Amino acid sequence: MSLAPWLDACPAVAILRGITPEDAEPVGAALLAEGLTILEVPLNSPRPMESIRRLATAFGERALIGAGTVTNEEEVAAVARAGGRLMVTPHAAPPLVLAARARGMIACPGFFTPAEAFSLLAAGADALKLFPAEGASPAVLRALLAVLPRGTAILPVGGMTAETIAPWRAAGAAGFGFGSWLYRPGDTPDAVRAKARALRGALGLG
């Protein structure tokens, strides 16, 4: 399993922080209707494992469902049991990359420095989450890509909107994580779909 085909289809991760299990499926359906097929439920959301289970059950192979804000190996195991296939961390944790890969999951851990990036790639990370991107810049991303192995996929996360991604794309970002700009607790599926449609336009996907 690889993250690359999902990013090729649409280089956007929908970060559904704060979503409830009751809202997960209708919001997920709205995102999929606009071609956003990578859905992340941060584990500091209400009953996150139930949301992951419902999304995985509803959308199966049509979407890549997973968890963010993963901080320990017990959580990795629980996400896998719920049907999640993607693990995202806020920090550089090679043991969590190993734990995810051992379960056949895609691992996209967080990093901020070259040392962290290299250690995570050595552990088998599929992609890297540059976080918080607000503390970096497209110039930093370009410099990182110049020294990391060719083909390393870096996804800036933090402060990303349809209006801010152009310079990051030009610097070589493989994709992006969109959080509160795309979804806030209480947003209706129609509101989320409208933002997803705007994002598709910004990404040049029509």
From TrEMBL:
Enzyme class: lyase
Gene Ontology MF term list: 2-dehydro-3-deoxy-6-phosphogalactonate aldolase activity
Keyword annotations of the record: Carbohydrate metabolism, Lyase
Superkingdom of the source species: Bacteria
Pathway(s) it belongs to: Carbohydrate acid metabolism
EC number: 4.1.2.21
Assembly, per entry: Homotrimer.
Family: Belongs to the KHG/KDPG aldolase family.
Protein name from the UniProt record: 2-dehydro-3-deoxy-6-phosphogalactonate aldolase
